[in-house]
Amino acid sequence: MYIDVSNLPRQCQLENGKTMKKTIVLSHPKxxxxxxxxxxxxxxxxxxAGVNIIKLDQKLLRSTLSLAEQRELILNSAEVFLQFPLYxxxxxxxxxxxxxxxxxxxxxxxxxxxxxxxxxxxxxxxxMADKSADFGAGARIGRTISELLSPFQAFAEKVGFSYRKPxxxxxxxxxxxxxxxxxxxxxxxxxxxxxxxxxxRSEWLLAQLTKIEQTANSAILRDYLQQQLDEYRxxxxxxxxxxxDRE
Length: 247
Description:
Layout: E1 3-4, H1 10-19, E2 22-26, H2 35-43, E3 52-55, H3 56-62, H4 67-75, E4 79-85, H5 93-102, H6 105-117, E5 121-128, H7 145-148, H8 150-159, E6 162-163, E7 167-170, H9 177-191, H10 198-215, H11 219-246
Parallel strand pairs: 1-3, 2-3, 2-4, 4-5, 5-6, 5-7
Helix pairs in contact: 1-4, 10-11
Keywords: Oxidoreductase
Protein name: Flavodoxin-like fold domain-containing protein
GO molecular function, one term: electron transfer activity
């Protein structure tokens, strides 16, 4: 189950921050109106591992988390996800404000020293109204997504984080329910670090199927997970046959 740290007592936030390994920094000026963000947040309940969530825009309005508490969360995270919609090819203003307030020279130094011993990762989860095919040289938008997100890669290198390939969600509101289910599964795999290989994906899908069967949850989701698992196994077997033929 995910943990929304903005709603926890401050003492509990600090204690959980020392034990949790992933933190999502969510920046969205109209979070309650966002179908994709609501869908993703609800989906995080399926993850076995706890995930800290800092909702920046709510934090700015309610000031429930001190800067010291947020720094404690970041310092004790093995992976930090910056999750936001791409507005005018950039992140919402609250994310830039958060970076400016939180990452003082002293905190950057603390992160650099910590990452020398226990390297952490920075990742980005981006939702956008455009298609990925619209980006790049010769396309409608003459810049790649990687170019637009390069300031975050530079930021990661500055504080000693490794930088992970971003997870892109395109045109969520135009996706069919089946496509949205696939988006959610791939997002959860990304957050769980279970997307690096066919074997990892298959193991993760099988674990989720087992959990659903034990808790008698949604038959629709179970069937979809089973379908995805079968597809990954078939593709893995096909690729194995091609490799053997070439050898």
